[in-house]
């Protein structure tokens, strides 16, 4: 059974609702109880001008990574996300597989670990909350080092509950 790190983000519509809906979907796929970070509000990257809600979830699954990716992408579409939209545009929900039990994979559909997660405080800060001993599977850097080296971006813990 693989332990997965999943990053969630939403900046369109009822952002909190979409995160909760994604958490419910992930819980239905996980072979163990989910471990969820707090929900954070973060500044957008790229062309978007809407603030995001972000969180990180640890789940466990026996399903292959590409099968899970297909499920995640279909869920995004079912929530209204346009799969043809430009990168970093506004979205109802974004589900990124950050890590799959330390596996290194590079296909045209999926790269593991996620190729730029270590630059994103909106992933690193919630990940540090639920997995303070996290070590990057490629660089072997600890989570605090990754946070210190990541791009500056406003990441604010909210009082929202799951």
Explain what this protein looks like in three dimensions:
The structure is a single chain. The protein is of the alpha+beta class. The chain has one domain: 7,8-Dihydro-6-hydroxymethylpterin-pyrophosphokinase HPPK (Alpha-Beta Plaits, 2-Layer Sandwich). The protein has helices spanning 15-29, 65-78, 121-130, 143-149, and strands at 2-10, 35-36, 40-42, 52-61, 94-100, 105-106, 111-112, 155-157. The strands form two sheets. Strands 1, 2, 3, 4, 5 and 8 form a six-stranded antiparallel beta sheet that branches. Strands 6-7 form a two-stranded antiparallel ribbon. The two termini are 25 Å apart. The model has no long low-confidence stretch (mean pLDDT 95).
Q: How are the secondary structure elements laid out?
A:
Blueprint: E1 2-10, H1 15-29, E2 35-36, E3 40-42, E4 52-61, H2 65-78, E5 94-100, E6 105-106, E7 111-112, H3 121-130, H4 143-149, E8 155-157
């Amino acid at each position: 059974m693989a332990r997965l790190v999943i990053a969630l983000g939403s900046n369109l519509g009822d952002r909190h609702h979409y995160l909760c809906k994604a958490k419910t979907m992930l819980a239905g796929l996980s072979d163990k109880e989910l471990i969820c970070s707090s929900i954070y509000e973060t500044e957008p990257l790229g062309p978007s001008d809407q603030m995001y809600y972000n969180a990180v979830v640890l789940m466990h699954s026996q399903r292959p990574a590409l099968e899970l990716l297909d499920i995640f992408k279909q869920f995004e579409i079912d929530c209204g996300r346009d799969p043809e939209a430009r990168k970093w545009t506004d979205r109802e929900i974004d589900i990124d597989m950050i890590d799959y039990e330390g596996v290194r994979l590079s296909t045209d559909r999926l790269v593991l670990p996620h190729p730029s997660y270590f630059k994103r405080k909106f992933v690193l800060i919630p990940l540090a909350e639920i997995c303070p001993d996290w070590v990057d599977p490629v660089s072997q850097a600890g989570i605090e080092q990754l946070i210190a080296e990541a791009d500056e971006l406003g990441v604010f813990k909210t009082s929202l509950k799951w």
